Amino acid sequence: MNHRHLLPSLALVAGLLSLSACNTPAPPDPAATASPGTAQDGEDADAFVARVNAEYKAMYPELSSAQWLSSTYINDDSERLAAKAQERWLGTLNGWIEEAGRFEGRPMSPDSARALAQLKLMTAMPAPKDPAKLSELTRIAARMEGTYGKGAYCTGEGPARQCRQLGQLEDVLRASRDYDAQLDAWQGWHSIAQPMRPDYARFVELVNEGAREMGYADAGTMWRSGYDMPADAFAAETDRLWEQVRPLYEQLHCYARERLQQTYGVERGRVGEGLLPAHLMGNMWQQDWGNLWDMLEPYKGAGNLDITGALERQYQRDLGAALYRRGPGADAKARFEAEREAQAQVARQMTERAQDFYVSLGMPRLPESYWQKTQFIKPLDRDVVCHASAWDMDMEGDVRTKMCIKPNEEDFTTIYHELGHVYYYLAYNGQPPLFQNGANDGFHEAIGDTIVLAMTPSYLESIGLVQSQGQSRQALINAQMRMALAKVAFLPFGLMIDRWRWGVFDGSIAPDHYNQAWWELKARYQGVAPATPRGEEFFDPGAKYHVPGNTPYTRYFLSHVLQFQFYKSLCEAAGHTGPLYECTFYDNAEAGRKFQTMLAKGAGQPWQATLKELTGSEQIDGGAVLEYFAPLQEWLQQQNEGRSCGWQTGGTTATAPPPAAPQPQT
Ligand code: X8Z
Ligand code: ZN
Predict the structure, then answer these.
(1) What percent of the chain has pLDDT over 90?
(2) pLDDT (tens digit, 9 = 90+) per residue, 337-389?
(3) pTM of the predicted model, to two decimals?
(4) 178 phi and psi, to 5 degrees?
(5) Which terminus of the chain is more solvent-facing, meaning fewer CB atoms within 10 Å of its CB: N or C?
């Protein structure tokens, strides 16, 4: 579990907590050998926390192994074992939470008080105490995740029958510009989620029951309680941040819509009153528009940031070498094997490249076991959950990532993202298990992405991935656009998923309105709509991994703001002067030291304190996002001048603000 952050159910554990590896000076406490959850007579709060830490660490590897197996070998047996392990874990956790009540108001160290408060936040899947319901919950969770991982869209009959999984359907959205082919791929993937609907509705009932037993109003309130501030204040913070960055998103939306209409025609390039058609955005969930570069590149050929092209060429070189080793006259089978070999090789090369950035900051090389146990590419002989994740298996250095890497830019940056999790695990493995977690979950998501921001054109050039960019204004706008298509396009998506789940958990979105509410939120925040009606016979939220995987999503919204703050601070540490967007801190020891210091703190103190140590501020703030994108925002405003921007969603209008001068933030 580690992943406490990623893993679906894993996330279970995860919610907030993590435990990771290493160290933990296990107290030579005899209690550590008692069976988990057994109350010890005369134990004070500090001793209780020490025991929970030890028991947690002791039981954790079994849970992570079961999860790892069920994600990398999907079948009925691994699903059963994962559900069972989860059941044991959540049962134990409930026991600890109940016992912790004994210590309320009793003397204890500040660390113990924090650890006890964290206990209730250790899972994103609060479980009912009733053993039958607990078991039902873990079975549903494992089944939903398996359904997602196995998901395939099949067409045709008999020998013409063809089934495509998510990766192949995503390839269509990435590369095809055929309206109908994209619509088919998009609809096809969304069909896999239809059977999850009853499971999800029951899941909601069960986690709500668990959350109420722990004293929360519902599971969404529990999720919002993990931020060292009252749940309501946290929700208000996310509104505040969104209002800061919304004008920038709306400008990008307006620009993208214009270009889509140029490509597909006025009618097909939008839906209704100015909404973007969901299937045309180059991404299954419209969360990252980077694949529309061909359509959205501001100045054709200014600068050359064709990372995907460079990676494909690397693959071709690897393939050439693999074929050469097989000698002339390789048959179809040999050719196939050579292709697999080259796919695995380029995936490892991409990962080594990412590791190199971290090592340049003074962080350790990944352990040998990482390279041996990681899943780099999609296996052919079984179903797996391809959604990328990073794992701390034992809190002692057995770290892994699980991806189905392809040689393209998106996967390349995702590797940097995942290694951010891995380096966080390794850095906080020295903390007690209950503090082995991100300062908050947004921090965990922001580490690797901070590095991605430092992958400037000059860095990419220095590692030989792209050619010299030149210094023109046009190249700058192109580089900013490339980053905005990943980072700015994401912002409303990062918010809307949990707006939906918060509503589902608090009952304001009833099961018979799941899909309608989903698309209302998509329209309101993202300005996106499906091209064809999506009634309640569909369950479109289930087509996004984190819903069946039950991974809270507001973390990614926070991360997309925080990472710019982290980046700015590390740039300052590296002595950067000049515009923020020009900074890379590759190879800078001082930036590395500062980063590592933050990582090592884990969740041992409120995140506000950790943020202050790094950035000087206790607030998450969108100012750095706006500062970074100031040139692009100005450019977008010029482009959009005279256009009517914004969109209408069933009565409410989202409009771009009047063209105010861009506001670089200090
Ligand atoms: O799920 C992820 C990571 C694993 S934590 C691959 N991300 C979100 C997503 O894919 O939806 C990273 C960005 C947003
Ligand atoms: Zn992540």
Answers:
(1) 89
(2) 999 999 999 999 999 999 999 999 999 999 999 999 999 999 999 999 999 99
(3) 0.93
(4) -85, 120
(5) C
Q: Is 76 helix (H, G, I), strand (E, B) or coil?
A: helix
Q: Which residue has the tokens 């995503």?
A: 170
Task: State pLDDT tens for residues 204-229.
Answer: 999 999 999 999 999 999 999 999 99
Task: Please indicate whether residue 417, judged by its CB atom, sits closer than 6 Å to ligand 1.
Answer: yes
Q: Do residues 421 and 47 touch, judged by C-beta distance below 8 A?
A: no
d(CA 15, CA 97): 15
Q: For residue 26, what are its two tokens?
A: 């296990």
How far is residue 253 CA from its own chain's centroid?
Answer: 22
* Ligand 1 proximity of 556 Cβ (cutoff 6 Å): yes
Q: Is residue 487 classed exposed, middle or buried when 0-12, 13-18 and 19+ CB atoms within 10 A define those classes? A: buried
Q: Which residues contact 388 (CB under 8 A, 6 or more apart)?
A: 6, 401, 402, 403, 414, 417, 418
User: How many angstroms separate the first and last alpha carbons of the chain?
Assistant: 39
Write out 103-114 in H/E/C secondary structure: HCCCCCCHHHHH
Q: How many helices (H) and strands (E) does the chain have?
A: 25, 8
Placement of tokens 């701390």 in the chain: 392
- The residue with tokens 């359907």 is 169
Nearest ligand, CA of residue 549? 1
Residues annotated within the binding site for Zn(2+) are 417, 421, 445
The candidate with the shortest Cα–Cα distance to 258, out of 642, 530, 651, is 642
Q: Given 418, 520, 572, 627, which residue is catalytic?
A: 418
Instruction: Classify domain 145-151+162-303+478-551 at the CATH topology level.
Output: Neurolysin; domain 3 (1.10.1370)
Look at strands 399-402 and 389-392 and give their pairing.
Answer: antiparallel
Average pLDDT (258-278) is 96
* CA–CA distances in Å: residue 350 to residues 357, 359, 416, 450: 11, 14, 9, 18
